[in-house]
Write a structure and sequence with these properties.
Blueprint lengths: L3 E4 L6 H12 L2 E4 H10 L3 H12 L5 H14 L6 E4 L5 H13 L6 E6 L2 H15 L7 H15 L2 H7 L3 E5 L4 H16 L1
Parallel strand pairs: 1-3, 1-4, 2-3, 4-5
Bound molecules: adenosine-5'-diphosphate (ADP).
Adenosine-5'-diphosphate binds next to helix 2 and helix 3.
């Protein structure tokens, strides 16, 4: 299997690029943000709990997202591989993912980090908020909190995956197609 973590701060373009990459490489897209938003829409108990945190731009507890990912991975083992988008977001999540995958005899193939500067991120998110209907994209203070969560809790993953020799950074600015082509170049080196 080819299992990719597509990494980057909020607004880096992980969701957009994941949609293109799953077509190109026939992978399953696992976005914890999307899964959580579908729980919110269905008004499940988990969704109601998560909504309060998401609307503030805080991370939801590790155990919740780890269990969500566990069931999706176990259900998708006949695929070519997975793209993890928005997960892992803490070192505890990364450790849990490594254990989960190794128990299934698979592993992370690579960690591609989209690099975008903070000013561009804030502009992109505020723009997306105009039509996405996402409460967490509508307010600059909430966006700043999401970026702070990223810096404090998520950015340490760069060191974690560098330690495993899996880290590669990719310029995350330019057209959607330019960024896609850069990602494909990095992936093709690994799978060919
Ligand atoms: P973005 O990358 O634009 O911030 P996501 O859709 O990935 O958006 O996440 C939206 C929100 O969902 C996050 O701010 C957080 O509250 C929650 N969330 C998503 N994935 C995780 C995760 N792996 N761990 C904790 N919280 C998460």
């Amino acid at each position: 299997m080819f299992n990719l973590i597509l990494f980057g701060p909020p607004g880096a373009g992980k969701g957009t690029q994941s949609e293109k990459l799953i077509e190109q490489y026939n992978l399953i897209h696992l976005s914890t943000g999307d899964i959580l938003r579908s729980e919110v829409a269905a008004q499940t108990e988990l969704g109601l709990q998560a909504k309060k945190l998401m609307d503030r731009g805080d991370l939801v507890p590790d155990e919740i997202v780890i269990e969500m990912i566990r069931s999706k991975v176990e259900a998708g083992l006949d695929a070519n591989g997975f793209i993890f988008d928005g997960f892992p977001r803490t070192v505890a999540q990364a450790e849990a993912l490594d254990i989960l995958l190794s128990n299934l005899g698979i592993s992370i193939s690579c960690f591609l980090a989209l690099a975008v500067d903070e000013e561009e991120l804030i502009n992109r998110l505020l723009n997306r908020g105009k039509d996405s209907g996402r409460a967490d994209d509508a307010d600059e203070n909430i966006i700043q909190n999401r970026i702070a969560e990223y810096v404090n809790k998520t950015a340490p993953l760069i060191g974690y995956y560098k330690g495993q020799g899996k880290f590669k950074d990719v310029v995350g600015t330019g057209s959607v197609d330019d960024i896609f082509n850069r990602l494909c170049e990095s992936i093709d080196v690994l799978i060919n």
